[in-house]
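Figure 2 data, in text form.
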Amino acid sequence: MTIPLRTALVLGCSGLLTLAAGCSETPTGPQALATPSAAFDQGATPGMGQLPSGERQVGKAAIEPAYDDVTGNLLYILTPEKAPLPTNANGHAVAPLYMVVYPQGSTVGTLNCEGVPGNCPDHDGLVASVATQAEPTVYGTDPATVVGHDHLLAPPASGGDFNVAWEVIEVLFTSKQAANTHLTTEAQVEAALKSGDAIPVDLGVSFDCAVVSGHAYWHGTPLGG
């Protein structure tokens, strides 16, 4: 299923959809978060303490958490404010970045981005709106009730499908029961798609971002609420 960029919800970022994972605009209400553990300051794997959630501003760039879609480990991605959106990369020089969206009532726990406009305010609304348009029986019709989403991508040297330019694909569950399974790897996403527990929505846009350290993320200023 494809929802072209121009037909989805129009939100900010140079008159285009703010879909980049960190295509950041002016901060909207920074708030203090709990002090991270030393393990997460180094970029730890899930289950070792407080899970990160939300974008953080570092200079003129935004950093947010994601999952390595090969291992399921946490990583962090950075996008400069002036990064091209969409990127000028050709169709053979992009890799998939999955945004797995969870509905109200999901039991999977802390997500990379939560709420609407939430703690990733430059794209939470867009992601939620696409979900409610494409799967209203699961996500409802009010984007504000969508609890959040995760980002999945393959970092350099992971053995996965890596490129500097990322093609954004939303992964939407087809039932609330299926949405209680936390998908953190590409293999899990592909299994859910194959079984019919989820559908892909290609948003028709690609952008550039880089993988950075957990140290950089935790020392940034939180965005959103």
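Caption note: The CA atoms of residues 154 and 162 lie 5 Å apart.
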